[in-house]
Amino acid sequence: MPTYEEIAKMIDHSLLKPTLTDTEIEAGCRLAHAYKVATVCVRPADVILAKKMLKDSPVLVTTVIGFPHGTTTTRTKVTEAKEAMDNGAVELDVVLNIGKLKSGDHAYVKDDLAAVIKACHARKVIVKVIFENCYLSDEEKIATCTICNEIGADFVKTSTGYGTGGAEDKDLTLMRSHAAPHIQVKAAGGVRTLERAIEVKALGCTRFGCTATAAILDRLK
């Protein structure tokens, strides 16, 4: 059985639902602090509020870029990333351009993500690349792992949590085997129990996104 700290430090507590109010964001940040998770992942417009709520906390602030479809322009993604960093985000989860990937335009996908990574790494900010595996073939997933290896992504991530599927075992295994050893794997979508958290950890994940933080960690108290 893993320790409380081992699981807590794998959690990006997710606060991305479009209907969340400021009061709910504040409550989510307080929960993240109380449970000592790795980060709280908020919508871009909530980064300033989350940073304020967590100013005296070890919990970091994450946000999403090009969310949820990855189809904004490269310039927009870079601008969004820079604003998020200015507002206090220190980890960014960026969605690849799904349509361009499925069109076979790997050069576009690579340049698009590389521009964001360059801007973020210049400020020592971590970038997680979201694949949205439910829409991709295995060949497309492997191609994206190769792209991430070449452009120096920090993490590869299974999904936004808002597609038609989440973190599947076969995808986690594929991503861990094709991403470079120094690139970490994040599971997102469907990690709602301690048992599932332990399973994704065993498959090589070092982070997972979830809303069921309390339910998972209460089991380890």
TrEMBL record:
Domain of life, source organism: Bacteria
Keywords from the UniProt entry: Cytoplasm, Lyase, Schiff base
Top EC class for this record: lyase
Example GO BP: 2-deoxyribose 1-phosphate catabolic process
Catalyzed chemical reaction(s): 2-deoxy-D-ribose 5-phosphate = D-glyceraldehyde 3-phosphate + acetaldehyde
MF-aspect GO terms: deoxyribose-phosphate aldolase activity
SUPFAM superfamilies to which the protein is assigned, alphabetical: Aldolase
Record carries keyword Lyase: yes
Biological function: Catalyzes a reversible aldol reaction between acetaldehyde and D-glyceraldehyde 3-phosphate to generate 2-deoxy-D-ribose 5-phosphate.
UniProt-recorded name of the protein: Deoxyribose-phosphate aldolase
Organism: Candidatus Raymondbacteria bacterium RIFOXYD12_FULL_49_13
Gene name for this UniProt entry: deoC
